[in-house]
Amino acid sequence: MLISGEARAQLVRGVPLFANADEALIGSVAGIATEVEFPAERTIARQGEPGNGMFVIVRGRVRVVRDGRPVATLGPGEWFGELAVLDRGPRVASVIADEPTVCLAIAAWDAEQLFLEHPGLAIALLRALASRMRSATEDHRH
Description:
The protein is an alpha+beta fold. The protein is built from five helices and eight strands; from the N terminus they run ααββββββαββαα. The strands form two sheets. It has a four-stranded antiparallel β-sheet with strand order 1-8-3-6.
């Protein structure tokens, strides 16, 4: 399934990470993102392997597995692999397609250029990361 440029831009607009993006940024993201399809049970990212980009889920569902244990399920509009974009370090979890899944892949070097050209996007990504970290580590007893 090949997504047209405008359809790709529409998908990018629907991702919460890009909620406050202007049309120039939407167009830039849509222009650099590559559509990738994964069959059910395909490993998209493997824990411990080098990461070289992030993925935005267009259709389908994935499970995030760390040290053999499921830690999250993600669906359309959600993303993963952002740590690899920021530090190009090894993947901290594996991500496996639960069903046929279509993603927009953004290479780390392209994302880095986007951050330089659109600092607001870098701030949005950092805020999203902080929210994820807080949810994962917050003590719910207080």
